[in-house]
Every structure is written in C-alpha cells, then in structure tokens.
Amino acid sequence: MDSRYWRLYLLTLVLGIGGSFQYGIQISIITFPAEVHVQRFVNHTWTLRYGAPLSDSNSKLVWSFVLAVLSLGGWAGAIHGGRLPVVYGRKKTLLFNNVVAIVAALLMIFCRMAKSFEMIFLGRFLYGYNIGLGLNVHLMYLGESSPKKLRGFLTLTGSIFIALGKLTGQIVGIKELMGTEELWPYLLALSGVPAVLQFVTLQFFPEAPRYLYIDKGDTEGAKQALQWLWQEDNLKVELEDMQEERESTRGEEAKTLRDALTSRSVRWQILTLALPCGGIQFCGINSLYFYAFDIFHESGVPENQMQHLALGIGATELTAVALCSFLIERIGRKKLMGYGYLTMGVTMTVLTVTLSLKHLNSWIPYLNIALIFCVICVYGLGPCGVSMALSADLFLQAWRPSAYVISGTINWLSMFMVGMLFGYVVDDLGPFCFLIFVAYTISSGAFLLGFVPETKGRTMVEITQDFDRLNYKNSAPLTSPTYCSTKF
C-alpha cells in the first residue's frame, strides 16, 4: 500500500469503527448467551407487573420482536440515508448517527434498573437506525474520498469491519467475558463505545471531497480535502474527473427515489444493485449462522464448545474477506462475486444432500460442518466483500444517495423476512430449506457474469457509459446518456 495515503487509511479505520462494524456486532451480540439472559429478564419483569410469567408462545413472540425490531430500525435509517447526507453532508450525518447509538447504549444500560424490557425494544430499534444510516453514509463517504486505484480495496473494508464486528460480538459474548447474568446489559450497550470513538475522531477529518466539489460546488474546499487526505499536490487528473462527472449531470441536484426507480438511464445499475447486492440476505449466510448450532448439536459437539466453534466461523469469514481485499483489484468485482455466488450455490446443494443423509454414517455430520465453513469462506472471498465495492462503483454523484436508499431498503426488508420466516421454513422443509438460497445464488451469479460490466480501475463516468450500452441497447438516448431521465 502507498504510504502517502496514510491519512486516508486512518479515515477508513474511523469510518469502519462507527459504520459497518456496528452492523456486525449487533448481528452476533444478541445470540446465546445474551438470548437466555434477555428472555429471563423479560419473564421476570412481566411477572413483577402482572403476577404471572409469560406463556411459552408469548415469550417466543417477544424474543422474535427483539430480533426483528433491529431490521425495522435499519430500514428507517436506510430511508434517511438518502436525504440527510445530501442536505447536511456525509460528516455531519455520521456525527448525528453516533449520538443515536450512544442513546441506544444508555437505554440498554438502564433497562434493568428501570425494570423495562420496552427499553430494549427501543434500544434495538435505535441501533438498527444507526446501522441502516451508518452503512449507507460510510460507503458514500469512503468511496467519494478514495482514488479510483484504491476505491475497490477501501470500500471493501466495509465487509472486513462487518466480519470483525461479528467476531468481536462472539468473543465478548461468551460466558467467560460479558455473557453473564450481571454483565448482559453492558454487553448490549457495547456499541456505544465505537460510537463515542467515531464521534471524537471524525472531527479531525475533512468532508468527502466529491461531495464538496460536485454537490456543494466548493472547488477549493475539495482540493484542500484531497491534499490533506492523499498528501499530493498534483490533483489535476482527479479534479478533471470530478469536473467531468459534474458536467455530465449538468449541475442537477441529487435525484429522488422516484427518479432512480423510473429513469431508464440507471435501469441496469438499479437491477445490479437490487439483485446481487441489496438482496444478499437471500444468499442464506445469516440463516446458515442460525442453523449451524443445530448441525453442531447433531454432530455431537458438546454444548459448552459450540460457542468456540462458532468463533471459528466468525474467524473464517474475517480471514476470507481480508483475503478478498487483496484479490479484488487483481481479479475484478464481476468474477469474484459471480463465481463466488455460483460456488456457494453448488456447495449448499451438496450440503442439502448431506443433511438429508446425516443418519446414514457417523462421519456425515462432520462433513456438514466442513461444508458450512466452506460456504462461509466462499461468501467472504466473493459476495460479502464485493457487494460493498460494487455498489459504490455503479452510480454518479447525483444518483448515489437514492440508490443507497433502495439498496438499504431491500437489504433490511429481506433480513426481516428471513429472520421472521426462516424458522418456520426449517420446520416445514428441514434441510431442503437451503434450496431457496441455492436458487438465489445461482441466478445472481449468472446475472453478474452474463450482464454486468467490470468496474475495476474505471472512473464513474466510464462505468456509466458501459451501463448505457445496456440501458439504451435498442435505442439511442435523446440527450446525454448520463443525464437522460427517460421513463420505463
């Protein structure tokens, strides 16, 4: 890595800690043993109020809502991720977002003292809002501050921080650390720490240069931000690229959500964002995390060792995503993600078969464990990392905020659906439930390899021109392709 960009690398660290890291830690931190302590607290509080404990069905419903409310908050945050960073800037939006996470952490700390499980609901909703808004703005800020030769690598660090957050949540949540009866409120409040760190450190960094130049028209401010971040004086090429992008949109303001959904000029970009990127929850990775404990149990793994085996899953994903960061600029987004999806589909097909035959031989359950690790490794090497980098490449400045709203909405609603329905699907279909994810991964892989142009090493305008060949395949645009808003 070029040492001249050390300040940009430091910005990457600051954005990651308060951005995608928060997503990863909230996904893993609420699982066992926190699940046991929260349910016990809910039952105890309910008994104190109403003189009788919750029934099993109501207890399950309350716990399901604790899990699902994060997705609802994430959706609300993703929706605001379109307007807030345009009106107030990327930096100010993230500073406000950290305050949301700090408030959520305080609710978690005092919920036991107040004897209110409703505070957990509200805290989880606010955490979701923080994640939904933070993920969008994190990637926008980083993509708009990076040179094109580093854009793929740096935006991919969003996936590295997600994997790091998952592993961190798994580690601190074990019984030997914070997964205890006394410490579980502080465990749930842990996201307040990275929020404080980002709130303090982000003050020392400039606003995103592309936002300053293209959205605000502050040429001098953008130049100073680039000089500070890149430690370069010769910025002619980058400034010309930003000028070309600004001229290509003819100074138009940020596009609305309706514009993004109806404009022919970004039709294929929206399809690419929605199918393999926004809908990544349907690749089955979170469901595989959920199902892993059942497979471990059926393989004869002692209960006190399951968490440690789960740590191995988290470490595998983190290692694979880190390796992806070194491959993405060599192999390219299209091949890594496309072949990654196809490999996941084939591996989950084999896993479906071996799960169905697990009782035929004593070694088959251990093969199932190996296949789980294989799927997670392939996910980290391809779809997990590339989905962050590819989505940052697809849109010009005017379209990017609304595009991230669409991506975030699809991501959070699909997470809500998978979280709420997967348990029932498992009950009805058993191991064949993974065939749903096989269909998604194979179709997404085929779509990427068959239609999506490569974005590696190309400017935003060049990428847009490549997509215009798909958007206007059978007809020529009436005006400049990058601006035309012809409807479907």
Structural notes for this entry:
One of its GO terms (cellular component) is sarcolemma. This is Major facilitator superfamily (MFS) profile domain-containing protein. It comes from Takifugu rubripes. Its main location: membrane. The protein has helices at residues 6-18, 20-29, 34-50, 56-87, 90-114, 118-143, 148-172, 184-188, 192-201, 209-215, 219-230, 236-248, 257-262, 267-278, 285-298, 303-331, 333-356, 364-393, 400-429, 434-451, 460-471. It is mostly helical. It has 2 domains: 1-205, MFS general substrate transporter like domains (Growth Hormone, Chain: A), CATH 1.20.1250; 255-472, Growth Hormone, Chain: A. The longest helix has 32 residues, at 56-87. The radius of gyration is 23 Å and the shape is globular. The protein starts with 5 loop residues before the first helix and ends in a 17-residue tail after the last helix.
Cα distance, first to last residue? 44 Å
Give the class-level CATH name of the largest domain: Mainly Alpha
Task: Report the average pLDDT across residues.
Answer: 86
Count of domains: 2
Q: What is the CATH topology descriptor of the largest domain?
A: Growth Hormone, Chain: A
Annotated CATH homologous superfamily of the largest domain: MFS general substrate transporter like domains
Kindly provide the radius of gyration, computed on alpha-carbon positions and rounded to a whole number of angstroms: 23 Å
Query: Which percent band covers the strand fraction?
Result: under 5%
Strand tally, please?
0
| Overall form | globular
Low-pLDDT regions: 478-488
Structural class: mainly alpha
Major sheet size, sense and barrel closure: none
Count of runs of 4 or more consecutive helical residues: 21
Compressed to H and E, one letter per element, the order equals HHHHHHHHHHHHHHHHHHHHH
The helix content is: over 70%
